[in-house]
Specification:
Shape: extended
Helix content: 40-55%
Number of helices: 27
């Protein structure tokens, strides 16, 4: 037990005791002396500073006044002090953390170091106390900084994952509409060339998006290597076919060398290996203007008979690199070399850095041998497991090395001869209207019956009401109920057994097993790949039909072929025009609201964004001259050229308004109307439904009625009325929506 007080220190009057006192007082740490009975015999002056007291005797006599009842670990301070001192006396040394407190109750975290000493044949414990408050505060700040950094990285990863879906949605429209137009084969050469450029640029943007996402995954530790069994020959063919397009019109000889002892099947992450090869090969083709690019595959045994090292070499006769450039190649700075000469070469500088990190994640290595003007050689070594002892052999190796035979097509876009399938029926489920439009456009040439659903709930309702489809193309990521949950309900609750194909922006190999185990019959990437979709249509629709039915459909197509395969062109044009009218009005209103005599930095940035948006929108509707003007105004905004902005903006807005009004008038004149009387009856019936739904505050029924009305064509007056009712429903103003619906349902002479 610790006995406090007793005024023991007054008895220490001998010379040795005075010397010890002097030593203790000179210590930079608080120092206390305990005897073998756990009594405090003395303490130095630092006690007074630490505990903010006038005399050390207060600490000596009232030790536990400066210690809370319990230590942070939950043990009573009195009991733990006894145990720690005992251990110090027994072992000669003890070190631990201890929580003190000032007389006012402020906590003082400390580190206690106990050392046993013998004085005149008697054992004592020297207790050195180090104040940890500053250290703890610094650690707390460091931990908080680390925590914030981790949260920031997690937020960035979540943001990029979310953006992958959001960015790919408009990309889906761009790529889809472009490919639809190219497949028509009706455009002049210059128009087709422009469309090809749009398609190529969109694919480049998609590649950059993928690179950014991959980089964020690597940095966040979310990138995983997913080993699967894959066919070596197939991996090689896919890689060659994908990259051979980079040759273009260049005078490049591409050669391929394959070791005949290469295993037929390997176990590894095929997708990541392809990604690595694609990055190195595409760079070789891009930076080699003429000469040769050589790709080779070799195999090297390891001590483990079930593993091998796959050695892939990419050699080119391109620009080459100096030693400094080689050292910075995988530094993470995303540097592109020789930009003054390579400004026209597409790329972001992300690819090789990501490839290097992927190689490292697969326990591989990459080495570089290069000289300026002499080309470069990259050697990639990646360990892989083997499925069995089979090898590709000399004959297959020889066939693979014949580039012309392995190359399916050098065209950027596939010109599919779509198999007519009027006997087929598919459902496309997607929450984005433009995605549904593009999917329907792809499917139109097949003469397939296409149904659409804008949510998983709607798809479930269709199946529950008896609808059956040859294929359901299901968007994987949708709000409220995603494709995975929708498919689970269709399979488990409704017993739906027909094919369901997932449409996903994350079509990675590590997703395949998840999709297949979740009830899907397959998956296709978004933006939609017409080749993937075609394979599913052939597999799940055509190949299940009797041959006589297939022949009859082909003959019917030939008989009906009159150059009108694309009757949806007018619909496409109308949709683009409608979008332009809305966008133009938005820009006109936004720019007119600006004060050009007192334009803030934020207002100027807003101006730049709006004229930039109109530049491409005007081009889309064929107003090239005003599109050029928008480009000039955008440049003026970026250069702070207020004189040009003030002089040209009024004329720009006037012409933009004129174009918008002309398109609106043309749209009204060309509006396709159903029978007026029938249309009027349907319109008034739906207005009655909306009126009753508003009285019951049933927004879902009201919206369904509005949706039914939106599928028919009406005059501008009725469209404005429908928009007004919709706005009132969104704002929760059921009374106003009810009044409008009731009036429309009972009045005669409404211009429908």
């Amino acid at each position: 037990m610790i006995k406090l007080g007793n005024n023991v220190e007054s008895t220490h009057t001998d010379i040795a005791g005075m010397q010890i006192r002097a030593l203790l007082d000179s210590s930079p740490l608080v120092c206390s002396v305990f005897d073998s009975n756990h009594n405090i015999t003395t303490a130095n002056q630092k006690v007074e500073t630490l505990f903010e007291i006038e005399d050390r005797s207060i600490y000596i006599n009232e030790f536990f006044k400066f210690t809370p009842e319990y230590q942070p670990d939950g043990e009573k301070s009195y009991e733990k002090s006894f145990r720690m001192l005992n251990e110090g006396l027994t072992t000669g040394y003890n070190k631990y953390e201890w929580l003190y407190q000032t007389s006012s109750g402020e906590p003082i975290p400390c580190e206690e170091t106990l050392v046993r000493v013998n004085f005149n044949g008697v054992d004592y414990i020297l207790c050195y106390t180090r104040d940890l408050r500053e250290e703890k505060a610094m650690m707390a700040k460091l931990e908080e900084a680390i925590r914030r950094e981790q949260l920031a990285n997690q937020a960035k990863t979540r943001f990029l994952a979310k953006m992958s879906h959001e960015i790919r949605t408009p990309m889906n429209s761009v790529l889809g509409i472009t490919e639809i137009e190219l497949q028509k084969n009706i455009h002049p050469i210059e128009t087709e060339d422009a469309l090809l450029r749009i398609y190529s640029a969109s694919n480049l943007l998609l590649a950059i998006i993928n690179d950014i996402l991959d980089l964020s995954k690597v940095e966040a530790g979310k990138m995983e290597i997913m080993p699967v069994v894959y066919e070596t020959a197939s991996m090689i063919i896919d890689t060659v076919q994908l990259n051979i397009m980079y040759i273009g019109s260049k005078r490049i000889k591409f050669t391929l060398n394959i070791d005949e002892n290469l295993p037929s099947y390997l176990v590894g992450d095929e997708l990541r290996i392809k990604q690595v090869l694609n990055n190195f090969l595409s760079n070789a083709f891009k930076y080699t203007l003429s000469g040769a690019v050589h790709l080779s595959f070799q195999v090297e045994p390891t001590e483990n008979e079930h593993d091998v090292i796959i050695i892939m070499k990419i050699k080119d006769t391109g620009q080459g690199m100096n030693q400094d450039q080689i050292e910075n190649l995988f530094s993470g700075d995303f540097i592109r070399f020789n930009m003054e000469n390579n400004y026209a070469i597409e790329g972001s500088g992300l690819g090789l850095n990501i490839a290097g990190q992927l190689i490292h994640m697969m326990d591989g290595t990459v080495s570089v041998d290069s000289e300026p003007g002499m080309g470069s050689e990259f050697t990639i070594r990646i360990p892989q497991s083997i499925k069995d002892k089979n090898v590709i052999g000399a004959e297959l190796a020889k066939n693979l090395q014949n580039i012309e035979d392995t190359q399916i097509s050098l065209k950027r876009l596939s010109k599919l001869e779509c198999e007519p399938m009027p006997y087929g029926k598919v459902l496309v489920v997607d929450d984005v209207e433009s995605n549904l439009y593009v999917a329907k456009g792809f499917l139109m040439p097949y003469k397939i019956s296409v149904d659409i659903a804008e949510s998983g709930f709607e798809a479930i309702d269709k199946v529950r009401n008896g609808a059956v489809y040859d294929i359901i193309f299901m968007d994987y990521m949708m709000p409220k109920m995603d494709g995975m949950e929708t498919t689970k309900i269709l399979r488990e609750e409704l017993g739906y057994s027909h094919p369901i194909v997932a449409l996903t922006a994350n079509a990675f190999s590590d997703m395949a097993a998840m999709f297949m185990s979740s009830g899907f019959s397959g998956y296709a990437s978004k933006p939609i790949d017409i080749n993937q979709m075609d394979k599913y249509l052939l597999r799940f629709i055509r190949d299940k039909q009797p041959f006589s039915v297939i022949v009859q459909a082909r003959n019917t197509k030939l008989a009906q072929s009159n150059g009108k395969e694309w009757e949806t062109e007018k619909v496409i044009s109308e949709m683009l025009t409608t979008s332009f009218i809305k966008d133009a009005q938005k820009v006109i209103d936004a720019i007119k609201s600006l004060d050009f005599n007192n334009l803030s930095h934020e207002d100027l940035q807003s101006y730049i964004v709006h004229v930039h948006a109109m530049k491409s929108a005007l081009f889309n509707v064929g107003k090239n001259e005003l599109s050029v003007t928008a480009g000039l105004l955008e440049r003026a905004g970026r250069n702070d050229d207020m004189q040009t902005i003030k002089a040209e903006t009024p004329r720009f807005l006037e012409q933009l308004s004129k174009i918008k009004n002309n398109l609106e008038q043309a749209g009204e004149q060309n509006l396709l109307l159903v029978d007026d009387e029938e249309n009027m009856v349907f319109f008034k019936a739906q207005m009655g439904i909306i009126y009753e739904a508003c009285a019951l505050l049933d927004i879902d029924v009201a919206r369904d009625a509005l949706k039914a009305l939106s599928q028919k064509s009406y005059s501008k007056q009725i469209k404005e009325l429908l928009n007004e009712i919709s706005d009132n429903l969104l704002s929760g103003d059921f009374d106003e929506a009810s009044i409008l619906a009731k009036k429309a349902a009972h009045e005669d002479g409404v211009n429908v």
